[in-house]
From TrEMBL:
Protein name as annotated: Ppx/GppA family phosphatase
Matches recorded under InterPro entries: ATPase_NBD (IPR043129), GppA/Ppx_hydrolase (IPR050273), Ppx_GppA_C (IPR048950), Ppx_GppA_N (IPR003695), PyroPPase_GppA_Ppx (IPR030673)
Pfam families: Ppx-GppA (PF02541), Ppx-GppA_III (PF21447)
Segments forming domain Ppx/GppA phosphatase N-terminal: 40-323
Length: 533
């Protein structure tokens, strides 16, 4: 599951029943479909997604026509996507980009698609494509408040956009797609040095009209999306010996990119390129063109790194479509400025029965954390990790009660919904949930052992707070109203204010059993004092 681009801060009355949408992106290289369910609370569940390499733009270097073979491949794929969407009873929105945008015979394809599948395809401009990609990226990375340069290298075109707080400061679409460049300059195998140089000069010529504007706007960071970017990232990670199921949020230093650029360009034939670990076999013939575009942009703006977004056009289509649904209601969508909250709510929905307990645990844990700032020395970022873990620590109960803390770890660590957090942050949050009960962190635990020493200490500190907060609601009756904690005479005295009509003995027993990690980590005793109210 993944979060909808904006979760409402109050119950949403716009839709009393679930709505299902299938978003289809007809790209020059690949067709994509995602099917999502919009719940009444504003969250999204992604039901399925598929991708097919169609190569709609192949065979025509000037993109003047879509060849018969390419048209047949595209329509066959579209029929499969229609069958998939219909199986979910989904409303369909289909958007086409560069190949159909430029083809003189595009109407033939559009008419056949509507006649043979019933799907009406919207052909969008390059600037509209860039806008939708920006909307997609804002759902997957916490960059709303940052001035970013978006670079999306597709098969037929490259989109560049500078955005900040949802506003577009600059955007352009250039005919510098990976397939287009391959068809025009790099089709010979092996690629000659002369053809490679011609391609470079062409890219420099096209980009030269736009890069001065980008340099003037001084974007804070570079975000890359789509196939070339993800392929480069996979190759970089393979070279480092790293395995990641998700690439979203991965930062690639410029030096690491240069190593892969050299490796790809030195492999002048497709056969040699396919031996590079991490390169998708379907991109062996077109990766050179994409890397040359990325290289020129990064060099010209002197970017120290770029950050990868798994979210792109199709997620932008989803947001834009659902936003249009809201225009006909009395409810509007807030800004795309806090995707972490949306991610937490989406994952927590896996175990909705735990909502009240999670709220109580969060309240008490953060009160303890805030009162003991001088003891733990941690800041707002670490507090956010702790708050997230408090909200999600019981989510593993959606699988089973037995070892549910381990199930919670697995769900948080592997959920595609945890957008807005880096892989390192997700690992820390997942481990906090893992250690909220039973045994605490141990050096023999592989996941804990893999952390940096400073992160191991952070997990110990934060997990010790979560264990106390969870213990103080052992009965899950919200008996404890609040707490105050102070350091006195070398120990922590914690005053617990509980409902006098309730019996707090189970909570006291529970925290007494779970306070050992806190005392060992901070080297101090922790004592509890009851105060009925």
């Amino acid at each position: 599951m993944l979060p909808f681009s904006q979760i409402l801060r109050k119950p949403n009355q716009a839709f009393r029943t679930e709505k299902i949408l299938a978003a289809i992106d007809l790209g020059t290289n690949s067709f994509h479909i995602v099917v999502v369910k919009l719940r009444p609370d504003g969250t999204l569940e992604y039901l399925t997604k598929e991708k097919e390499s169609v190569r709609l733009g192949s065979g025509s270097s000037d993109y003047a026509v879509i060849t018969d073979d390419a048209m047949d491949r595209g329509l066959a794929c579209l029929k499969r996507f229609k069958t998939l969407a219909d199986s979910y009873k989904a409303e369909i929105r289909a958007v086409a980009t560069s190949a159909l945008r430029e083809a003189e015979n595009r109407q033939v394809f559009l008419d056949r698609a509507e006649k043979e599948t019933g799907i009406q395809i919207q052909v969008i401009s390059g600037n509209e494509e860039a806008r939708l990609i920006y909307l997609g990226i804002l759902q997957g990375l916490p960059v709303f408040d940052k001035r970013i340069l978006l670079i999306d290298i597709g098969g037929g075109s490259t989109e560049l956009l500078i955005g900040e707080k949802g506003d577009i400061l600059f955007s352009t679409s250039m005919k510098l797609g990976a397939i287009r460049l391959t068809e025009k300059y790099l089709k010979k195998d092996p690629i000659s040095a002369t053809d490679l140089q011609k391609c470079r000069l062409h890219i420099e010529s096209v980009l030269s009209a736009f890069l001065p504007q980008i340099e003037t706007l001084k974007p804070f960071m570079v975000v890359g999306s789509s196939g070339t970017i993800t392929s480069v990232t996979s190759m970089v990670l393979e070279k480092k010996g790293e395995k990641r199921e998700r690439l979203n949020g991965t930062e690639i230093p410029i030096d690491s990119f240069k190593e892969i650029r050299k490796q790809v360009l030195d492999a002048e034939s497709i056969k040699k390129r396919l031996k590079i670990p991490g390169l998708d076999a379907k991109r062996g013939d077109i990766i050179v063109g994409g890397i040359l575009v990325l290289d020129e942009v990064l060099q010209r703006i002197k970017a120290p790194s770029f950050t990868v977004s798994d979210f792109a056009l199709r997620e932008g289509i989803v947001y834009d479509t659902i936003e249009s649904w809201y225009r006909h209601t009395d409810t509007s969508l807030p800004r795309l400025d806090n995707i972490r909250d949306k991610a937490i709510k989406t994952v927590a929905n896996l175990y909705p029965q735990g909502k009240k307990h999670a709220e109580t645990v969060t309240k008490l844990t953060l009160q303890l954390f805030d009162d003991l700032t001088n003891l733990h020395g941690l800041g707002n970022l670490e507090r956010d990790y702790l708050e997230t873990a408090c909200n999600l620590h019981q989510v593993g109960l959606c699988i089973s009660h037995h070892n549910y803390h381990k199930h919670s770890y697995y769900i948080i660590r592997n959920s595609e919904a945890m957008v807005g957090f880096s892989n390192a942050e997700i690992e820390i949050i997942a481990l906090l949930a893992r250690y909220h009960r039973k045994g605490g962190p141990k050096g023999k635990h592989e996941e804990f052992k893999a952390l940096r020493p400073e992160d191991q200490l952070l997990v110990r500190k934060l997990a010790s707070f979560l264990r106390i907060g969870d213990g103080l609601d052992r009965s899950e009756k919200s008996i404890m109203e609040r707490l105050d904690a102070v350091m006195e005479k070398g120990k922590v005295n914690c005053r617990l204010y509980y409902k006098k009509s309730e019996d707090p003995n189970l909570e006291i027993w529970s925290v007494s059993e779970k306070k050992d990690l806190f005392e060992d980590t901070f080297g101090t005793n922790l004592e509890f004092h009851l105060h009925p109210i």
